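User: Structure tokens for this complex, please. No commentary.
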Amino acid sequence: MSFNLFPEIQADLKQVETELEKHVYTDHPTLTAASGHLLHAGGKRLRPAFVLLAGKFYEYSLERLLPLAVALELLHMATLVHDDVIDESDTRRGIPTVRAQWGNRVSVHAGDHLFARSLLLVARLNNPVISRVMAKTCVEMCAGEIQQMVSAFDADQNFRDYLYRIKRKTALLIAASCQLGAIAAGAGAGIVRALKWYGYYLGMAFQITDDILDMEADMVELGKPVGSDLRQGIMTLPIIVALHRTADPSLSELVVKREKSEEEVREAIRLIRDTGSIEASHRVARLYLVKAKQELERLPAIPTRYNLALIAEFVGQRTY
Amino acid sequence: MSFNLFPEIQADLKQVETELEKHVYTDHPTLTAASGHLLHAGGKRLRPAFVLLAGKFYEYSLERLLPLAVALELLHMATLVHDDVIDESDTRRGIPTVRAQWGNRVSVHAGDHLFARSLLLVARLNNPVISRVMAKTCVEMCAGEIQQMVSAFDADQNFRDYLYRIKRKTALLIAASCQLGAIAAGAGAGIVRALKWYGYYLGMAFQITDDILDMEADMVELGKPVGSDLRQGIMTLPIIVALHRTADPSLSELVVKREKSEEEVREAIRLIRDTGSIEASHRVARLYLVKAKQELERLPAIPTRYNLALIAEFVGQRTY
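Assistant:
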């Protein structure tokens, strides 16, 4: 997903980028480098984009939306940095993370710093409703992280466990981005609610698609090695569905194995794909996208509404 | 420092304890255990106490002060948990930390969770001024942590560098506790300002005393091994003063050495004490306490004012 998906806010997203640079900058070269490493590694800036797009549904004021857009991306970055703090016993991913380059301590402090900067931007908006939504989202995201951690390598998980986790991992922050953009623009309760639910459903579909892409052995565009969820023991939808569909015990044995060879990861992916669970997962993602698009019908028919529908289309077809 | 130092708020501090239990509790046994480990390890509850005491200077309402008191302690706990995340290469402390028992990952998530819960309590107060003070304090505390990290084992530090760090490590959060307690009670700007500065000066003295206690080889009441700052390469006031006073190169050699034996730590402490830097550091702490007490003179002469003066006396004499 690149910026041309958001034609009407392209110039404003550049300003988000400039502001992000400013907020990542500190007097401490190591910290700036660690946070900057993540910033310059790219990213879709999906959360800022949703803040700005949601702001189009009432009084669009970049001045008011900009700090919010930046705050949501900083919070997202903070969670990414902290996610990368792993135990010594864990296998390293194929790419250099902040942790891999600077160690756990810098990662923790860099994440805390991004979190605090995000918090400060939100506090300065002087809007208690926005502060509360942000805080609640943070608490839920933490609960999701913890659930992902404690349920790792546990093959005895169902669809509901999965939905609990991806709601907190992804959907709630995208929902908050849409909701808060609309609130900051002064939109009415009905518009705010529709945009929040659009963001929620879209976020669920986005994460399901992300989890499917982790199984697509021929994809290198994702920027992380294929099968990384399998290696980390994260039970994603394709894995959960496959475990329910197969009678072959070798899949569950592979899935719960803590240190897998490259060959074992490939074998697990093959077994998973053979059950048809990839297609089943795609169907679930599409159901969420239908629900996202239904929410859009509650919104005024401004061009942004079609842009949001286009984004939903794109999520269903994304290959990176 | 135990609760009998705060006679007039003793019953209310018990409620703080009950509320802390509630906020540390989650659906996740591991997380609850990790956060509870820290909660039950004790702690002086200095920040909640200052919130409540500051609240006595206008309209004391436990209902309004309680969430704030709990939020400040949760934030303090979050910083403690994250401080304990250390690199694999670092030496372990003598006592089991959250990290030592549950690993880095649980520590990061437990700290994030405590941080988010604190944030949510503050957001629910619906007071943008309080939200801003909290957020600013968080940003500064992060900067202090990072400075402590990057300046570790660097013997080329002066008094100002030290003050920069302890301001952020300790004084700002105690200042915020006093300031926010007064704000939540509806006190006027003059009272809020005096209490904030009282907390700031007291916090500076408190941290200097803490750093002195780390050099007192016969103290075991502190709950951490003596010389832990030396081991971690943190240049405290007694060390900085000693380095400026001595011509003996063996002290600076010992100080910058990353892995010190027990014998070397003891030798470094002996060299530091021989310079008279402990007494010099005590004098600096006393200067800050004089300033703290001067701020109290701006406050109405209610019994709490004498209690705050007593606390300042106590900080000057504390041995644990």
